[in-house]
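Checked the freezer inventory, then went back to the computational side. Two predictions to log before the end of the day. The first one is the construct we discussed on Monday; recording sequence and tokens without edits.
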Amino acid sequence: MELTTFHSSCNGLRFRSPSLPFQAVPWNFIGLAQFPHSLSTCNRHKLVSTATSQSHNPSPKPLSTTCSVANDSSLNSTAKDAVVDPFLAVKKKAMDMSPELKGTSIFLVGMKNSMKTSLGKLLADALRYYYFDSDGLVEEAAGGESAAKSFKETDEKGFRESETEVLKQLSSMGRLVVCAGDGAVQSSTNLAFLRHGISIWIDIPLDMIARGMIEDQSGLSDSEIFASEAYSKVLTQLTNLYKEMRGGYAIADATISLQNVACQLGCDDLDAVTTENMTLEVLKEIEKLTRAKKLMEAAARPF
């Protein structure tokens, strides 16, 4: 499978789909968004980075060691000590729902962050799909990240046309997980392309995204990051961007919020929510959507 864009500034550049190491990988996600997300609500004082790289932890913790169990005197020691293997749960869910999905592509929208990227790759592996990052394809077509930034500044209309062309080609294919950039929700044309598949809003608290961005660049501790001028500046920029993009994100077929996942699992801090937890909830939501579509199609058939 390969993808070719046709904008005049990047004519002839060919994108090749990545080879997928179809191997066991862990995952999870779920929730509804509530604005503002400039500060997380489940734990404002104990925040830890959601992810510091685009790859998942090779040694994920099982749910029982990651999140605290809600107090319930009726729970016996056996239930409390039970360990749920997140990989097995994700693998089973993906296998169960795959026939109903029928190769329908998945588009992930939301603020750019490492959790969204890791989630997309894990989801693709579980479903045996191909993974693409639409922003990455646009940058590759322009000649790299710096060239893409310059292209956007000097010819924004042409840059937006490139984004549209990439989404057009991706939406014409099947069996894809696409991490879509903000350009995907900035025009009715691009939003229409997302309708060729299932769109999911991956909603991560802005303070966690800001902290992750600074942490990747500086290597400072959490306390140093929160006290830095750079953190306040980045958080303000993200908040303004979120306000601008939120309406487009909300058009997605479903929303998966890290905060809601943490609350649902009874986690004491947001960092305890793993990529495994998030992906499992994404799969559950996709399953609901495909079943609802199937019921609607059945109801529309003549007797």
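The second is the one RB wanted added to the comparison set:
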Amino acid sequence: VLSEAIEAFRRFAVHGDTRATGRDLHGKNWSKLCKDCGVIDGKSITLTDVDIVFSKVKNKSSRTITYNQFREALSELEIFKMVEGKSPIYLESRAVASPTVSRLTDTTKFTGSHKERFDETGRGKGKAGRVDLVDKSGYVSGYKHAGTYEKKVQPKPQQKPM
């Protein structure tokens, strides 16, 4: 298996470059190697994951990786393969709740039209919160005494004299 890995590294290291020595692998050829060998499956390992691993293992000022860095990159990809569906970005970073974020996302403090988008519990109303629903009551929107006209106009029942 080791000789196959060395051979694959050398073949892809010289791919498309007539001046290549076969000792260093460029990022473009690294991506091609991962695609051609079936490492990238589009679900647990994507092209972005492969590029991030390449950047992680290469030297800071270099554009290529050596065979030892190549083996390190393959072991990194195996870790990502074990945690299916997770991108390396999600494995390395965690969200930290800050007071600023919690204040900005507290729906009880929303005002104006934004307040109308959430119910009493703070959950979004969905489309009903974003779209103006047509009110066919005959009153102007925002009228406080809606529905009181009928009570005023109806004749009061007359009492029979005794």
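For RB: DSSP finds nine helices and two strands in the chain. The first helix runs from residue 2 to 14. Let me know if you want it refolded.
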